[in-house]
Design brief:
By secondary structure, the protein is mainly α. It is built from 6 helices and no strands. It has one domain.
Amino acid sequence: MNGILEEIEENFIKYSNIHADINVGYRNANKAAKELIKIYKYLLENTELAKKVIDDIFAIDNINAKIWISDLAIDIDYKKNEAINLLISFGKNKKIGILAMNARLRLADRKIIPIDKWTFED
């Protein structure tokens, strides 16, 4: 299982980095998002593996990977509060640009915090 875990994590980080890179163009960013969704769906079906991936992604310094993996954490109800708190923290951080809006939208989509209730912290 370690080989699968490493491959999933490497791809998850790689595609989340591509998705967040403004220099790759929208086509490549959209392809990366599709790959992330495939990984997400696979992990939904493999919750024990998903928990390991969540733990590992939460432990690294990669905002976009944490935003993407937070969806999974919320959906499988594993470290849900940590995921919500990460998204809230990112959503308030104007220094991370569009990623802040990404975090906000994920919480709004799940009806956790409406999009019109947000402000940035200084």
